[in-house]
Design a protein that fits this description.
Elements lengths: L6 H9 L3 E4 L7 E4 L1 H4 L2 H15 L6 E5 L2 H13 L2 E5 L9 E8 L2 E8 L8 E9 L3 H13 L2 E11 L13 E7 L1
Parallel strand pairs: 3-4, 3-7, 7-8, 8-9
Antiparallel strand pairs: 1-2, 5-6
The structure holds 1-O-pyrophosphono-5-O-phosphono-alpha-D-ribofuranose and adenine.
Adenine binds next to β2.
Length: about 180
């Protein structure tokens, strides 16, 4: 049972703590800055509680969070849902043997890596990030999990920029976002 009594008021409170920063990191990009939300104890807790309430029924054994903002929401959700946390990192950061996958970003290109021994074959696994834009990061993270043989339960985001059609990249599992910006 959710701890939230008024979901729409909670969502409005969370949305009010996400700041638009125009032309960052490149001209034409409206950057969704979550730092005001993270700094607000009640707002941050509300966001985690709502995401946990929406995702708990999936009963994940692992939450996978993508560096770096995915660590913040992924780790909090892993704790809340009683799951392990697996970091997917930018290249060269993980110390043991990795799988690696390149992807395009709204404002550049990058790659993500995961430890080859991060989970057991068939483990129930949920990917979490703060924001879905073009879907490149999430698609690459999903590809890493396929290589690990995970049972991919879905993709969960705090914010989805729906006008970028990122969810079309993830045909392999359901996508769930708390705040959808059309
Ligand atoms: O859907 P996409 O177009 O792939 O974009 C979404 C990704 O972009 C941001 O991360 P970023 O790579 O900026 O790194 P950061 O979390 O370290 O800021 C965000 O946290 C997502 O991971
Ligand atoms: N517009 C945006 N705001 C914040 N993070 C992002 N990651 C990719 N696009 C973004």
């Amino acid at each position: 049972m959710s701890k939230i009594s008024d979901r729409s008021a909670a969502l409005a409170q969370i949305e009010g703590l996400i700041r638009d920063v125009p032309d960052f990191p490149k001209p034409g990009i409206i950057f969704k800055d979550i730092t005001p939300l993270l700094g607000d104890a009640k707002g941050f807790a509300l966001a985690i509680d709502l995401m946990a309430a929406d995702l708990g029924h999936l009963k994940p054994e692992y939450i996978v969070g993508t560096e770096s903002r995915g660590f913040i929401f992924g780790a909090a959700l892993a704790y809340e849902l009683g799951a392990g946390f697996i970091p997917v990192r930018k290249p060269g950061k993980l110390p043991a043997a990795v799988h690696s996958c390149e992807y395009d970003l709204e404002y550049g290109t990058d790659a993500v890596e995961v430890h080859r021994d991060a989970l057991q074959h068939g483990a129930r696994t949920l990917i979490v990030d703060d924001l879905l834009a073009t879907g490149g990061t999430a698609r690459a993270t999903g590809e890493l999990l396929r290589r690990l043989g995970a049972d991919l339960l879905g993709y969960a985001f705090l914010i989805e920029l729906a006008f970028l059609n990122g969810r079309q990249q993830m045909a392999d599992a359901p996508v769930q976002s708390l705040i959808i910006i059309e």
